[in-house]
Amino acid sequence: MRTIDSTTSLHTAALTDRVKRGDVRKFYRKFATRYPSVRNPLMLMRRVCMFIGTGCVPIGALALAYGITEVVSEGAPVADVVAPVAVGALLLSVGIMMARFFMRTFKRRDTPKRHYRLARFATANSLSYLPGPVSGKHLKPWASRGVLTLTRVMRPASERTIEFANYELRVDTLGSSNAQFGGFCAVRLSTPLPHILLRAQAAKAGKFALAALPDSAQRLSLEGDFDDHFTLYCPEEYERDALYLFTPDVMARLIDRVRGFDVEIIDDWLLLVSSRDVVTLDPESWQGLYDAVGALGDKIGRWERWRDDRLPAVPRVATGPDAGAVAVGLKPAASAGRVARRGRRLRMRLGWGEAIGLIALGSLLVGGVVSLFYSP
Fold it and tell me: What is the pLDDT of residues 16-69, one digit of tens each?
């Protein structure tokens, strides 16, 4: 058994070496028999439907724009234009979302050669490889935000539960489903910790796709130039605990080696999350991921010694004929393995995706009401 640390060597030749077609065909016959999901026709149909839908949206938008132009040229009242404009704005938003969804799913399509390379890479680095798609329900705190689906799942034979995977998180927002894509590394901790999120400044462009963001009142500014690289959020009244977990040496490692990843501690999971896929054929991406995990790996032991002093103290157990008298004088021990309720989750606010959805839906409703009451 081993863990991933800063000295772990990574063998990436299998990701880029030339391969023989015969070897790929021989491998894929057995691989597809073992994992029938790789030949799932529903994935192909899904991409085709999204492609058709994405192509239809511009046609509909142009037709609607032509209709609005005709109505305006005829001197129609403003009330008659509000609803079509609102519908057009909503249609445009849906088109952008569909186009983004199609591009991400298209880039994620798997081929026998890609599976072959990833499987060989996994074997060379003592990893198991599961092509997926599979449910991510075991990541309970994260999966509770929506429907979590994982692909290209790799797990090392380590002393801790560690998992690399690409994900798709479907979040229901305002009656519609918003899909978020990316990759992550999940490390299981032996004890729950307060909910802390470090958002990488380099990845801020991805905030548009987030369904929710932490309330800004929970932001904690740290010393040095750390704020130039990460924005740290922790539950209110847990600032001292965040400083205990993220000491100056930990912050230095984050700045030097954990670049482009959001770092989230939630319950008993440590998550390094990227808006990009992490299980890819790019050796540099893999090396960066291993460096990030290794940078935090030997600090986890310190984190697991943390105790929440906001919980009721648990007295030590005494035995013997004088146990009752001795217990009175015992100093209560700190509660282990739990976090007070207010420290378990960050308080969230609407993200840009939800806000735009609300604005579009509100505009549509207002336009409908105006047209209903003011139409001639």
Answer: 999 999 999 999 999 999 999 887 666 656 666 666 666 666 666 666 666 667
* 3-state DSSP assignment of residue 172: strand
Please, are residues 230 and 254 in contact by the beta-carbon 8 Å criterion? yes
Size of the chain in residues: 376
Distance in angstroms (rounded) separating the CA atoms of residues 18 and 247:
45
Please give the structure tokens belonging to residue 229: 């690289």
Pairing relationship of beta strands 127-130 and 212-214 according to DSSP bridges: unpaired
Mean pLDDT estimate for the chain: 78
* Buried-state track 239-252, b at ≥16 Cβ within 10 A, e below 16: eebbbebbeeebbe
Identify the band that residue 355 occupies on the pLDDT scale cut at 50, 70 and 90. Answer: low
Helix residue ranges, H only, 216-261: 239-245, 248-257
Partners of 158 in beta bridges: 2
Residue 87: C-alpha distances to residues 56, 274, 324, 360, 366 (Å): 15, 34, 74, 8, 11
φ/ψ (deg, to 5) at 135: -75, 145
C-beta of residue 238 within 8 angstroms of C-beta of residue 195: no
Please give the DSSP secondary-structure letter assigned to residue 184. E
Q: Which residues contact 134 (CB under 8 A, 6 or more apart)?
A: 149, 150, 151, 153
The helix/strand/coil state of 11 is coil
Phi, psi of 50 (to 5 degrees): -65, -35
Using an 8 Å Cβ cutoff, are 180 and 276 in contact?
no
**Using CA atoms, how far apart are residues 343 and 345, in angstroms rounded to an integer?**
6
Q: pLDDT tens digits, residue range 165-177?
A: 999 888 765 545 5
3-class DSSP state for residue 197? strand
Q: Which two tokens stand for residue 176?
A: 């519609």
Phi, psi dihedral angles at 374 (to 5 degrees): -115, 5
Spatial separation of the C-alpha atoms in residues 23 and 327, rounded to whole Å:
70
In angstroms, the Cα distances linking 218 to 35, 166, 177, 195, 307 are: 44, 29, 28, 11, 21
Residue owning tokens 């899904």? 46
Report yes or no: 307 and 241 within 8 Å, Cβ to Cβ.
no
Predicted TM-score (pTM) above 0.90: no
- Residue 89's contacts (CB-CB under 8 Å, 6 or more residues apart) are 360, 363
